[in-house]
Design a protein that fits this description.
The protein has 362 residues and is α/β, with parallel strands linked by helices. The protein is built from 13 helices and twelve strands. Helix 12 links the parallel strand 8 and strand 9. The longest helix is centred in the first third of the chain and has 16 residues. The protein starts with 6 loop residues before the first helix and ends in a 9-residue tail after the last strand.
């Protein structure tokens, strides 16, 4: 049998990316020339995305998809364990994929799941709302875990700081603000349930703890998907925020180490760091050791995520613990429940576990 053309085939032939192709084929925004090129290639290759949507709406083949940025990350391993445990108890097989934190790769994996008629997916998203819109329009049941996809910024909001959008989402999750009304022509946010940790409370508690120890120059070390944690950090430290103390890596361990090392060397006056994830916490520990900075005498360290090696450090790390396995289990429950009744998003509590990596400001 002749192999059916995939989204990746169309993207390669059109000289674009899978995200762009998905956007065009689902009726999303694109330039006239891009739309014309993609549609011409899709017709030439006999690519028929609408058939996928009909298949999904008419039948279930069983099975769940699980997409995470990095299977080697301890937290995502815990989350995956929770999903697998829940799926196993329900007799559902799981198709796992690693996106590498790359929206293009994520779009290709979404296309693959659609082509295999996998109609229920749990994802730690890397792409934005437009990356996921084609799957939702095709009838796929999606539940996000750990974080939400950033929404595409509308033209009238281009002058707003990204931190303002992240803070709006934090307040929305806390029930303190309503999402503003937007014109009918504007892109609507995805109506997708999610299972999240209470980043805002966790970061706020950590900053208050460090402030209580006398620290005033506190830095935040973040990575992809940490916009809400960074917004919570800015809110916790209060205005004016020293933006030189809010630093992001690109996701890899090398990038995390470079960000931590650069932060320590450029701001020797800082006295404490909040690392936004376990990869960043590991990088901060290694960079401090390489630069002969003593923890906690020279710099105090709080890490988001409680992973087994955190207690093995010298000294053991103070952490903001989030329930990774429970997060995965609850996300799987939501995706299996969806269709019988409307699932609601869940926010799980975090806990500050105090160990030996923080000390008073000297």
């Amino acid at each position: 049998m002749e192999k059916r053309a995939t989204i990746k085939d169309v993207a390669e032939a059109a000289g674009g990316g899978a995200v762009t192709v998905s956007r065009v084929l689902s009726g999303g925004s694109a330039s006239a020339s891009t739309r014309e090129r993609v549609l011409a290639v899709a017709a030439q290759l006999d690519y028929r995305p609408s058939a996928l949507g009909r298949n999904l709406r008419q039948r279930r083949t069983g099975g769940l998809g699980l997409l995470v940025p990095d299977l080697t990350d301890t937290f995502y391993g815990q989350l995956s364990e929770g999903v697998l445990a829940c799926a196993r108890s329900s007799g559902e097989p799981v198709v796992m994929g690693s996106t590498g934190g790359d929206p293009e790769q994520e779009a290709e994996l979404i296309g693959m799941l659609l082509e295999q008629s996998v109609d229920r997916v749990i994802a730690v998203p890397s792409g934005d709302a437009e990356t996921w819109a084609p799957a939702v329009r095709a009838g796929m049941t999606v539940v996000f875990a750990d974080r939400l996809p950033p929404e595409a910024v509308r033209e009238e909001e281009n002058d707003r700081d990204p931190a303002e959008h992240a803070l709006d989402d934090l307040l929305l999750l806390d029930g303190l603000a309503a999402r503003p009304r937007v014109p009918e022509s504007a892109a609507r946010p995805l109506d997708v349930p999610a299972v999240l940790a209470d980043d805002r409370a966790g970061i706020r508690t950590a900053v208050r703890y460090l402030r209580g120890l006398g620290h005033r120059r506190i830095a935040f070390l973040g990575g992809p998907g940490h916009d809400r944690r960074a917004a919570a950090f800015r809110e916790a430290v209060g205005a004016p925020v020293d933006e030189e103390l809010v630093v992001f890596g690109t996701g890899s361990r090398d990038s995390a180490y470079a960000a931590a090392s650069g932060l320590f060397q450029s701001r020797p006056d800082l006295s404490a760091v909040v690392a936004g994830g376990n990869v960043l916490g590991e990088a901060a520990v290694l960079a401090a050791r390489e630069l002969d900075l003593r923890v906690p005498k020279d710099v105090s360290l709080v890490m988001y995520d409680d992973v087994p090696w955190a207690e093995l450090c010298a000294p053991p790390l103070t952490v903001i613990a989030q329930p990774g396995r429970d997060m995965g289990y609850r996300a799987c429950e939501l995706v299996l429940r969806e269709g019988t009744r409307r699932a609601r998003s869940v926010v799980l509590p975090t806990e500050l576990i105090i160990r030996g990596s923080c000390g008073p400001r000297r």
